[in-house]
Structure formats: C-alpha cells, structure tokens
C-alpha cells in the first residue's frame, strides 16, 4: 500500500458497497431489485425475500449476530463459522418485526454477488468502485494476515482479556465480509455517492427509506434506505451514512446529499456503544455551521 494513512476494518460500512453494486447492476438492466433472492440461491428455508427487502432490512430474515455468535467469536476468534452455520444459527431464531437490522440478509446478498458476478464480490468491488474512484487503500479482508498492517485494534470481544485483533481475529466472522479502508478513501466514495455520481435511476431507490423506529443521536426521523442509514427530515437536508463496528474497530460516515456534498468520517478503536455514529453526525453538523451559506 502506498500511503501512511491508518487503515481500519470498517465492518458494516461494507453494506453500502454491496448496496451500490446491486443498484449499479439494476441501472444496467442486469437484474431487478424486486427479484427474489431465490432466483440465484437455492435456499428453501427462506420465504423468497426480494433483493430490495434484504437491502433495506424488511425481509424478515433473523440476524445471526446474537449472544451465541458473540460467545463463539470470543472462544475461537480465528475459526469463523462458514456461511451455512451462520444461516442455520440465524434461521433458528424467531422471525423479526417488520424492520430489523439483519447481517444475515447481507450475507445472502454477498452470496448472490459471488454467484452472479465474475470474480464475485471482491472483483465487483474493485472493478466498479475502488479502481474508478481511486480508492487505492480499500480492499476486502479475507484472511487474518490481511489485518497485519492495520492500525492497532484493541478488543475485549476476543479471548479472555483485551488484546490486539491483528493476528488474533479472522475477518470472515463477518458474514457479508468487511472491507479495510482509510478516511480518505471513504470520503471519496461517500462524496461521489451523495452527489449522485455513482448511480442512475436507482439513486432514487437507494434514498427511498423506511423508518426504523429507534432513536439515533442528532437524527429527526431515523430511517434506512438501500444500504444507507438516512434521515429525510434532517434540518440541513437529506442525510445518508452508515456505521459499523466489531472486534478492534468502530467506524461511521455521514454525508449531506447535494451537488457538492459535505462528508464526515470517523474511524476509531473498538466502539461498543455506537459513539462513532454520534461523532460523525456531530462533525457533519459542525461542517454545516462553518460552511459558507
């Protein structure tokens, strides 16, 4: 890698990459967002959720990330569950309410990309986003060795004591996969996304939100679109972004949707309380106050 800027696991910020890839495929007519996921995955245990429902967490697919999963990560951080075990673990749980954040849904979406796109998710990410946008420090983490050159990441989620995740955690515990990135690369991506430069007609789909029914710092109407957290009623304009966190690292980005977007990026150590998201919203509010009228 060519820069000295710290690199971090960005965990669920990777969901936005997945959503944008699906939207770009839809823009080119290669799929419909309203097609059932079973068009690509032979999964009779599912009730034929559509891609759109998985993307906005309305598919009714239970999340695998519960206390049992967390304990498994703690006990065997270098031995991730395969996709099938993650799915079995999730699908044993009761169906969730109409909107419920689901890592399992994005695991399924990643598997569709791996089936549908030559070279799978990793190749699509490089071809469609990281290379065109010059995101030279962004890649998927697929092996413990991929963490070797990251910023130090102390975690209380692996093993019996707080320790650095580098060399001690397998990133494929994240079913949809986690990318590695930097603040500069994330700023490039979110600036292009919020300016409407990455998508055609599907940009409207991405911004079509459902209310999530939970409070979030600084947000008036917390909502979720296709792979983006959002607030259509934010006082300064339409707000989009995402948060992410897991062993060793926390991350959040928020952007104001406009021709020249304002973007705030927070990358930090392990964030168990969602503070990265609050910090990113607060930083964006400061940018709005300080920007020329």
Structural description of this entry:
- This protein has 293 residues and is of the alpha+beta class.
- It has a domain at 8-207: DD-peptidase/beta-lactamase superfamily (Beta-lactamase, 3-Layer(aba) Sandwich).
- It has 9 helices and 11 strands.
- It has helices spanning 14-27, 51-55, 67-75, 83-91, 103-116, 120-130, 183-194, 202-207, 275-290, and strands spanning 8-9, 139-141, 154-155, 163-164, 178-181, 210-211, 223-224, 229-231, 239-246, 249-256, 263-269.
- The strands form 3 sheets. Strands 6-7-8-9-10-11 form a 6-stranded antiparallel β-sheet.
- A hairpin with a 2-residue loop joins strand 9 and strand 10.
- Helix 5 packs across helix 6 (120-130).
- The protein is globular, with a radius of gyration of 18 Å.
Secondary structure: number of strands: 11
Mean pLDDT: 95
Q: What is the terminal-to-terminal distance? A: 39 Å
Tell me about the biggest sheet? 6 strands, antiparallel
CATH class of the domain at 8-207: Alpha Beta
Judged by helices, strands and strand pairing, the structural class is alpha+beta
Outline the low-pLDDT stretches: none
CATH architecture of the domain at 8-207: 3-Layer(aba) Sandwich
The count of helical stretches stands at 9
Helix proportion range? 25-40%
For the largest sheet, list the strands in their spatial order: 6-7-8-9-10-11
CATH topology of the domain at 8-207: Beta-lactamase
Radius of gyration: 18 Å
The sequence of SSEs as H and E is EHHHHHHEEEEHHEEEEEEH
User: CATH homologous superfamily of the domain at 8-207?
Assistant: DD-peptidase/beta-lactamase superfamily
